[in-house]
């Protein structure tokens, strides 16, 4: 071990993610304080909404506390209740399913496509029942799911189509941006995503009636937004709702990031491309699997992952990267096999792809300021793979 330490250039400690500070965040937070409104729906929230609406090509965008909150709003807007089913991938973050369970409805987990790791439309079509109300599609690693195929199924059966676009700000499908592809889409600005505000999110809505109701749900079920626009002379409780809107300080930080969305995406895509190029020879020799850009899609450099031979190979890789001070986590424990997934969900079919991917996928460091440390990561990964 000491010998190999001497031989190998040791990394400083390369984390898996580092929150970015682009430039104007503090200036805008000071300005928000100076403007005197710290509660939500002030100037910065409006500017963020407008930016997100523009970036996503959607009808309406509403800032929320998190993508989790946006998904909960989407579940309310789908009018989900006990007995209803929502088809979704099992290979996703827990919030996709929790939003449905909180309405008393049942998440129905189906398998993913082995190339895109997104929900497989053929599997969705197989498991539509008279109780199905919606499809929640996740754009994994920022690459949009096959939305035309999903929209065809949704329209045939009268289902709602919701994008979990937590990872997909700035990505496109057939030239259309994520967020404009379903009836609604949920975005995340958590510090592990591309554009951040610590915690944060947005719901985009492409159906005017839903947008009107969303505004009320987000304001604790009141028509307060209409009151502030002078459309009603007092505001009152008119629908279900909760507190889903963030304060102005969060919005001010986020606005600075949104202004730089394109620069952030370009930088991350160059990291993605550099990883892709470096590992290509190993992929050709079938040593590792690499992300495949789905047909007709552009990504946003959200994530880079390797697919290992099996779970043992992955554990060995992670351990060898850790010895070199580089964090390479994996995810997700498939929801269909998690304790709460078994309790609240339903899994009608085989989950072979999901099970294999969740055993073999490992994520490499990916963040705005990664810079030349990417060389260290690539060298360390090659060493880790050679020792295997
Ligand atoms: C990050 C993430 C979420 C949750 O986002 P928050 O803003 O932390 O609530 C939901 N779904 C997916 C696919 C995610 O990657």
From TrEMBL:
Biological process per Gene Ontology, one example term: polysaccharide biosynthetic process
Annotated catalytic residues: 193
A molecular function GO annotation: pyridoxal phosphate binding
Pfam families membership: DegT_DnrJ_EryC1
Residue numbers of N6-(pyridoxal phosphate)lysine PTMs: 193
Keywords: Pyridoxal phosphate
NCBIfam families reported for this sequence: ECA_wecE, PRK11706.1
Assigned protein family: Belongs to the DegT/DnrJ/EryC1 family.
Protein name as catalogued: dTDP-4-amino-4,6-dideoxygalactose transaminase
Taxonomic source organism: Rhodovulum marinum
Origin organism lineage: Bacteria, Pseudomonadati, Pseudomonadota, Alphaproteobacteria, Rhodobacterales
């Amino acid at each position: 071990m000491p010998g190999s330490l001497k031989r190998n250039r040791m990394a400083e400690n390369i984390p898996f993610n580092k929150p970015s500070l682009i430039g104007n965040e503090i200036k805008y937070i000071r300005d928000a304080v100076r403007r005197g409104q710290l509660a939500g729906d002030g100037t910065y929230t409006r500017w963020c909404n407008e930016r997100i609406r523009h970036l996503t090509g959607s009808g309406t965008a509403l800032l929320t506390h998190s993508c989790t909150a946006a998904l909960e709003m989407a579940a309310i807007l789908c009018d989900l209740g006990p007995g209803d089913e929502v088809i979704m991938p099992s290979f996703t973050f827990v919030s996709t399913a929790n939003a449905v369970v909180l309405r008393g409805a049942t998440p129905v987990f189906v398998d993913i496509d082995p190339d895109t790791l997104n929900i497989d439309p053929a599997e969705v079509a197989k498991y539509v029942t008279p109780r199905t109300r919606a499809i929640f599609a996740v754009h994994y690693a920022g690459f949009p799911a096959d939305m035309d195929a999903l929209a065809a199924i949704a329209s045939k059966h009268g289902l709602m189509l919701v994008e979990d676009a937590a990872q997909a700000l700035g990505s496109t499908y057939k030239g259309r941006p994520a967020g404009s592809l379903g009836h609604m889409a949920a975005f995340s600005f958590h510090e592990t995503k591309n554009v951040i505000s610590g915690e944060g999110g947005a719901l985009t809505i492409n159906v005017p009636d839903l947008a009107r109701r969303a505004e009320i749900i987000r304001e604790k079920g009141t028509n307060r937004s209409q009151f502030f626009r002078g459309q009603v002379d007092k505001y009152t409780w008119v629908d279900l709702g909760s507190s889903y809107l963030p304060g102005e300080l969060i919005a001010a930080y986020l606005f600075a990031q949104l202004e730089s969305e394109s620069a952030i995406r370009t930088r991350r895509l160059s990291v993605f491309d550099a990883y892709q190029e470096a590992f290509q020879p190993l992929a050709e020799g079938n040593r590792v699997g690499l992300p495949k850009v789905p047909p007709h899609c552009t990504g946003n450099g959200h994530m880079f992952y390797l697919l290992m031979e099996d779970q043992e190979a992955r554990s060995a890789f992670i351990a060898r990267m850790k010895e070199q001070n580089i964090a390479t986590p994996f995810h997700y424990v498939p929801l269909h096999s998690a304790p709460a997934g078994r309790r609240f969900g339903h899994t009608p079919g085989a989950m072979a792809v999901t099970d294999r991917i969740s055993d073999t996928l490992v994520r490499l460091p990916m963040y705005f300021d990664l810079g030349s440390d990417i060389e260290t990561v690539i060298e360390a990964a090659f060493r880790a793979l050679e020792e295997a």
